[in-house]
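Page header: ASSEMBLY MODEL / two components / 826 residues total.
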Amino acid sequence: MRVRKLLLSLVASACVLSPITVTQAAEAEQFFPMLVYRTGPYAAGGSGFFGGIEDYYTLLNLRDGGIGDVKLTYEECETAYNSDRGVECYERLKSKGPTGATVVQPLSTGITYRLIERATADKIPVMSMGYGRTDASDGRVFPWIFPIVTNYWSQNTAKIKYIGMKEGGMDKLKGKKIANLYHESSYGKETIPVLDNQAEKYGFEVKHYPVPHPGLDQKATWLQMARQYKPDWVILRGWGVMNPTALKEAQRVGFPAKKIVGVWWSGAEEDVIPAGKAAVGYVAAGFHPSGADFPVIQEILDKVHGAGKGNISPQRVGTIYYNRGLIAGIITAEAMRTAQKKFGTGKSITGEQMRWGMENLNISAARIKELGAESLMSPVKVSCFDHEGGGAVKFQEWDGKKWNVITDWIPTDQGIVRPMVETSAANYAKEKDIKMRSGKDSYGSDCTVTS
Amino acid sequence: MLYREAGQFKTTYAADQAIFPILQDRWVFWGFLIIAFVVPPLTGSQYVMGPILTQLLVFGLAALGLNLLTGYAGQISLGTGGFMAVGAYACYNFALRVPELPLVVDIMLGGVCAALVGIVFGLPSLRIKGFYLAVATLAAQFFLTWIFDHVGWFTNYDPAGVASAPSRTLLGSWAEEGGPLGFLAPINVLVSGPRATPETKYLVTLAIIVVLALLAKNMVRSSTGRAWMAIRDMDIAAEIIGIWPLRTKLLAFAVSSFYCGVAGALYVFTYVGNADTEAFDLARSFQILFMVIIGGLGSILGSFLGAAFIVLLPVVLNITAATLGEGTLSSDTLSNLELIIFGGAIIFFLIVEPNGFARLWQIGKEKLRLWPFPH
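Prediction written out in full:
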């Protein structure tokens, strides 16, 4: 009897609720799928990043009523950084909203790889900001994939430049030994070719040490690396719990933290705080600083968190991952604005229109200032030829309490990266029988400009 | 009342040996099969056919493979992920380097390669048993994924080690427009790659799995299966009654690895579209072992039920939690809720029925035969 009553009331409430959802959908909306991961070994990154994006969308909705009279909506789907779940979430969310998914941000190189062909076939752009498939920077082969800001290989050249700087010049790199401690996944393996290439160019020696997922077991690797190989520098290409573990192991075998250079997925508060004192002096790359002293973040704290609508605990606002998500939000919103300028405001844009917006995105320094994000991010200019948008890298040092930026923007070495990207993309095009875009193409982009 | 076999007499040996001796079972089975082939393509939902059904079928097949080895032949293996990887990469290389081959042949060749590798890693089973064998097969898991990670040839020198399924047709390039068998072109549909329709992918997967499951069912009812079970129950006794352990155990490893290999190949070609060794790591081996344990050791149906539990329940929980908890609970809580309920469900089912879903199904059937009169 009770069960029947419960069922009846459920049905009744569903009937009452459904007309409301219908009327709400009448307003113009833009739907963004969120492939979050708030559980699993990489939850620190996933929750911070998506908290940042969602807070920014919420700010735009509360302050401006969305973008160009279109409200931003999103739905989360938990992937736990698992590629199978990522595909499932993508398929679940891709056709929601009035025009389907606008842009997908998987925040996982593995999931990005899984989605490249799917999204291309579905005409949904993939924005893999600072991760994913490096050779997708060649937009002529990968029209739908945007490794915006800086790809892995570019970042890596900046890292070698930083090491060269510390050694007193790039010529001093000759004969030095660098160990590449990498997460054994598609993410980790991505930089092996570019490191080998640079080793040849600058005359240093590089040895690659894989660490199996999730990276809690590194004792043997560090013993072998620090005691037998004795590298001058260690590049930490870690992710999630692998990072603090690496720093602790380094301390145990007596390898100085200041000789470890992390990639930007190894350089957040969550990566160093668990390592305690072992992390003091550790240096990591980043394409943005941490901290909440930026007008846009203050506005979020005030308007979003002040109204109790924050998507993350306010203590984590301004951490590295949060700021990274915020930048992803800014770039997405600006791309949508760009698309609206061409295709009109007040209505939902499609994935194809969003793709145009991303390919013609140009966020100048003046615009960044206008957005209240000055010195939080570097300018981005995307084109058909270059889906990376040419960012630069800053290095920051952990002092035990916070990250301090210790260098200016270090430009990447496109002289090394670009030819490798083009060769690799051309191989992909050949394998997959893709015709490279050239000239004014059917998407309405100009692929002749090569800078 | 409905489920009563009164009046069904078996007059031939064939009828006596049928897979489903009860008429109602046959109806249900055929009905189910027709629904499986017809309804999902009619709905046209890519979500239902792709991540839900194809994934379920692929992992069900892998669980079936492991079930043949562990449930029927009694050899515990933790190398399932490795054998799936062999099937996946072998199929990838055949498809990439010999485009003339029909994709179905590629997939089967992937299975054959996995079977050969399975025989090699099955050799220790002649000397060691139980948990010790599990550890020996662990070597297969690590060795095989290591090979695919470090030998670039297997992934066609992809910088990230990702094997991306090329677009291949059901009958191979010869049967395409303009080829020597060009007259077959109209039925030569694209099965893999981004341009293949989800319907084709689903139907091809389903067809392969129906055939393989039927084979498996008959195998375990034949002398092969009986020999496996004899070895499982007491290998010394089996040897005394004339079963040759070397042949029987290695055959179990070969057949099991073949199934896992085909599952790996299907995972890459009809489900995800590409794969790296992350997809075939130790966690995958454990996942499949759990499917077998929860589904029921020594049961074909159990393999698929276990796969459904492990693969689909988290998704269902996630969708339910997201729909019901929208706005009331924080996203963090919702994400963790799924893990809590899923973990609870595993414990609950193992306490209620330690022999798995297949046993639960059997009990249900027996109860139904008596229903509504319990005596």
